[in-house]
Specification:
The complex is a heterodimer. By secondary structure, chain A is an all-alpha fold. Chain A has 2 domains: 40 residues, no CATH class; 229 residues, MetI-like (MetI-like fold), CATH 1.10.3720.10. Chain A has 15 helices and no strands. In chain A, helix 5 crosses helix 9. The longest helix of chain A is centred in the first third of the chain and has 35 residues. The mean pLDDT of chain A is 91. Chain B has one domain: MetI-like (MetI-like fold), CATH 1.10.3720. Chain B is built from 13 helices and no strands. In chain B, helix 5 crosses helix 7. The longest helix of chain B has 35 residues. Chain B is globular and about 75 Å long. The two termini of chain B are 34 Å apart. The model of chain B has no long low-confidence stretch (mean pLDDT 89). The chains are: A mainly alpha, B mainly alpha.
Chain lengths: 305, 289
């Protein structure tokens, strides 16, 4: 290939040009929507002005990054990002596993199907809708407070209070996606050889024991791969998810890097500064993905690529 | 199937009851908005409405369904989802097909590029500026153009094409069909499963997207459904109350409830028909390695 003379290149293209023509839209798409923005990250090292453009905006070295590391706002959003990330992998992650193990115990097919459908449906609602429902449900006249009243408890404004924001994030995350997450585990469970269970029954293992000593251990490889992938995506908390739940009253705990970049960069038009924030996040994300993908390959032989 | 002991039966019963309770809890918030959307203003204001509508009325629905701006947003979203999904499948297939051919010398380069886009996410601001620069700001095309290809879907489709029996394709080539004809009249018609699954992926992304329109559409005339709904449920002066309030049978809350239910309807309608493809998609999504 590297020694192709111009003649044979022309010959090659004469014969195979349709393949190259086919790929053009995809190549152009990747260049415009992925690689040019990546290159555009260099405005983090500039005092970018939309009128001067990248070529004429002055270079300022690491000034934006210094600004960033001196800003108390940044530590706040970075901490919030880390905390939500931790909650995501410690609380949200295990829920589908537990649900899948339990769903697997239902013997009545119709019930099983209904439970699965009920748990899958929220996955297809947008975060605007999920948040809209959450705001209504937890509002002062919402069902949550009506039920509290029945039990003689005072009503509470959950969505507007700092102390609850993270739990709302976790709960809505579970509500929307945990059921959906069971699909992979249920598929892995159904691929377990039934002979293993038959042998266990002969040895006197009941269904609870089978769950803990057969199903769970055989699920472990799947769990490990998904867990490592989740760790690699640690910084991706979902802009739509957080943004739609946020109110000015909950910024102190709910403002994450993504929403901060949106406010400073898009709404505040501090392009270079917000790019520095975004680049910082992208680099951390990159390192995490590389590390955990390597690990996942080592553990299971499969990874993202 | 061996028969279960008494203890196991109790265990299964408890598990089943538990899961049924969980499912009901998962559905309750949906039922709650549904019942508010059909209730009259007064019982809603008196905190009387929970799971069953009180003072059943269609007035909130009539008001919302009479809002032409909501219908406009609905059709913007519908059209961009339909066009976007078709275009996405076309471009993904066109890019994936050459990747399965040895004669195509850029295959390796494109695969590396695709993986790079998966591990290094360009920061938001340069992305925003680039998309603006190509003329997609306040342009309805931005609702689907940036979504027409993802590295992930590209890899899935390539994997699928690779499993296509080579003899069939060779036979087509022998009969004089070029690459384009082979792809469109032989390979794609036999790839309906992967097309349906990926098509649903793309469609759900475009239908539910929020961040892109938030970034790129500031002109209310071009708001897609999700932005419109967000506008309805966050703004207090979105529903002008005209005339005598005590005569009205709805309030902001019942109207918001209608908006939320309205936007769920299309998804709930298609869901039962497409469930098997959704499930297939979820499998592709995670056990690909």
């Amino acid at each position: 290939m590297n020694t192709l003379s111009s003649n044979s290149l022309i010959g090659h293209l004469q014969k195979y040009w349709p393949l190259y023509v086919m790929a053009i839209p995809g190549i152009v798409f990747f260049i415009i929507f992925k690689f040019i923005p990546m290159g555009g990250s260099i405005i983090a090292f500039q005092e970018y002005s939309i009128f001067k453009g990248i070529l004429d905006s002055p270079w300022v070295g690491f000034k934006n990054f210094n600004l960033l590391f001196e800003s108390p706002d940044f530590y706040r959003v970075f901490t919030n990002t880390l905390i939500l990330g931790l909650l995501k992998i410690t609380i949200i992650f295990p829920v589908p596993i537990a649900l899948a193990l339990l769903i697997n115990e239902i013997r009545v097919t119709l019930l099983k199907k209904s439970v699965q459908t009920a748990l899958y449906v929220p996955h297809f609602l947008s975060w605007v809708i999920i948040a809209g429902i959450a705001f209504d449900f937890l509002s002062i006249n919402g069902m949550f407070n009506i039920v509290r009243e029945w039990f003689g408890m005072e009503s509470k404004l959950i969505m507007q209070e700092e102390g609850y924001f993270r739990w709302i994030y976790v709960l809505t995350g579970i509500w929307r996606d945990a059921g959906w997450g069971t699909i992979v585990y249920l598929a892995a469970i159904s691929s377990i050889d039934s002979q293993v269970y038959e042998a266990a029954v002969i040895d006197g293992a009941n269904r609870i024991k089978q769950m803990f000593y057969i199903t769970l251990p055989l699920l472990l490889p799947t769990i490990v791969i998904l867990f490592l992938m989740d760790l690699g995506n640690f910084m991706e908390l979902g802009f739509d998810h957080v943004y739609n739940l946020l109110t000015p009253m909950t910024y102190s705990v709910g403002d994450i890097i993504d929403t901060y970049v949106f406010r400073t960069g898009i709404q505040g038009a501090r392009y270079s500064f917000a790019t520095a924030v975004g680049l910082f996040q992208a680099v951390i994300g990159f390192i995490l993905v590389i590390i955990f993908n390597k690990l996942s390959k080592k553990v299971s032989g499969g990874g993202l690529w | 199937m061996t028969s279960l002991s008494y203890g196991e039966k109790v265990f299964q019963f408890i598990v089943t009851v538990f899961l049924c309770i969980i499912s009901v809890i998962a559905i309750i918030p949906l039922i709650s908005v549904l019942s508010i959307s059909f209730s009259s203003r007064l019982p809603v204001e008196l905190n009387l409405v929970t799971l069953w509508p009180k003072g059943i009325t269609l007035e909130s629905w009539t008001y919302i369904l009479g809002r032409s701006d909501l219908w406009r947003s609905f059709f913007i979203t519908l059209v961009s989802t339909l066009i976007g999904t078709a275009l996405s499948l076309l471009i993904t297939a066109l890019t994936a097909y050459p990747l399965t051919k040895k004669e195509f010398k850029l295959g390796k380069l494109i695969m590396i590029a695709a993986v790079i886009t998966m591990v290094f996410k360009a920061p938001l601001i340069p992305y925003f500026l680039t998309v603006k620069e190509v003329g997609l700001y306040n342009n309805p095309l931005v609702l689907f153009i940036p979504h027409v290809l993802t590295a992930f879907n590209l890899i899935i489709m390539r994997t699928f094409f690779k499993e296509f029996p080579a003899e069939l394709e060779e036979a087509a080539v022998v009969e004089g069909a070029g690459y384009f004809r082979t792809l469109f009249s032989l390979v794609l018609p036999l790839s309906k499963a992967v097309l349906a699954t990926l098509g649903l992926f793309y469609a759900v992304v475009i239908w539910n997207q929020f961040q892109h329109p938030l970034l790129f559409i500031t002109e209310p005339d071009w708001f897609p459904l999700q932005l419109k709904i967000r506008q309805f449920i966050t703004s207090d002066n979105e529903f002008p109350i005209v005339g005598d309030i005590s005569q009205l049978n709805y309030n902001a809350r019942t109207l918001r409830a209608v908006t939320v239910v309205f936007s769920m309807i299309p998804i709930l309608i298609v869901y039962p028909y497409l469930q098997k493809y959704f499930v297939k998609g979820a499998m592709l999504g995670s056990v690909k390695g």
